[in-house]
Amino acid sequence: MNAAVDPDPSPPEAPAVVLGAGYAGLAVAQGIRRRSRQRIPVVLVDRNPVHVLRTQLYEVGKLAATGEDTDPWVVPLAETLEGSAVEFRQGSVEQVDLAQRSVTLDSGTVRFRALVIGLGNVAAYYGVPGAAANTHQVYRLSGAKKFAGELREVERASGTLSGERRPRIVIVGGGSTGTELAAEIATTDWRPIAGAGARPPEVVLVTGALPFLAGFPSSVVDRARRALVRAGVTIVAGWNVARVDPGRVTLEDGTVLACAAAVWCAGLEAPPPVRALPVPHGRAGRVAVEPTLEVPGHPGTFVVGDAAEVRDPRTGALVPSTAQAALAEARVAARNLVARWNGAPLAPFVYQERGVVVALGLGQAAGALRKVPIWGSPAAVLKRIVQRDYAHAVERGEPPTLI
Is 62 domain-assigned? Predict the structure, then answer.
């Protein structure tokens, strides 16, 4: 196990390195430059040359049915970083050495004086046989594009099916991703690719042993459930998935769900480079950070977003792993990194949620803004406006926000 690092063992010219250009990583990189008035050199590392709007990747129906490009899902980093003096380096993170203050990429090595880890998460399969090999996932751009292509082929083939048979899509996981994906597929107009006789997919949402939309306000849960039922989604609750075979999902009670495709939305965990760090970890391999978002015993190293386990210092409750929370953490991490760099005091992170909105397909959504319920088309319009404003802010290099 690495020992706690010296306050600054790296060369004075070493930069602040930010790993991951997701919601938290991109925001913290730009925040460091603004707060330091461009005095702190920043290197932003990501395996892709684009910032992915991950909160919109559930919109696979739109891509599958219309064949649209994925431009609405991405923002080129060259555009958003132009004029910011943040240096971008493309590469996949293989190892982080906190003692030597170096990051090994598939494209070389980067030394750092300060570090922010915002590498996001990956799908967690919990040892379920066949789950990784036989399901799709929409947590990453590549996975969403692949599943959209599969949906397109499934619907094209549906016009040749005889009788009343409809292609079945099984979605595993009753959180926000699974819910939004189920509603999206169930309410998509498939006629552009399958003709007037298109057979819309039968959508089955397996929520497992956990409550549907666990952690969301009861008003959101109730309206989301009713919206899914109206859209024709079948909700299967109470049993987790026991195994997944090609074209078949088996539940713990022995129920077998034959399907044209299955999607895994049942959970997330920290990626391997984060799980391998010799530091305190919390649930799903996330780094258990201090209230300042620093890694215990490693001053100047911060973890934000889905890679971090953050507790509210007032209540001890876990901060949710959402894009909204990630952006809030990024603002504090940027401020604290600049303070650490300059020998100034650090501040604790205190999270205040503004609200939540769950998309429910075809211009519908449900949510709560500062505990005030909002639903139907107004909620859907609000969600779209927030997503649009976020993308525009990123493109302009301005501080983004999300509810």
Answer: no
Confidence band of 7 (pLDDT split at 50, 70, 90)? very low
The owner of tokens 């998460």 is 121
What band does 341 get if pLDDT is binned at 50, 70 and 90? very high
Phi, psi of 299, rounded to the nearest 5 degrees: -60, 135
Give the pairing of strands 114-117 and 298-303: parallel
Instruction: Answer yes or no: is pLDDT of 280 > 60.
Output: yes
The C-alpha atoms of residue 211 and residue 213 are separated, in whole angstroms, by 6
Q: Is the pTM of this model over 0.85?
A: yes
**CA angle, residues 53, 59, 61, in degrees to nearest 5:** 150
Residue 155, pLDDT > 90, answer: no
Instruction: Examine the pLDDT at 3 and tell me if it is beyond 50.
Output: no
Return d(Cα 96, Cα 278) in angstroms, integer: 10
Q: How many domains is the chain built from?
A: 2
Identify which of 259, 257, 216, 220 has the alpha carbon closest to the alpha carbon of residue 367: 220
CB burial class (10 A; 0-12, 13-18, 19+) of residue 223? Answer: buried
**Dihedral sign, Cα of residue 56, residue 135, residue 50, residue 338:** positive
Bridge pairing between strands 256-258 and 93-97: unpaired
Is there a domain that residue 399 lies in? no
Residue 247 sits in the same domain as residue 138 = yes
pLDDT at 97 over 90: yes
Do both 257 and 296 map to the same domain? no
Residues spanned by the domain of 31: 16-47+91-121+270-353
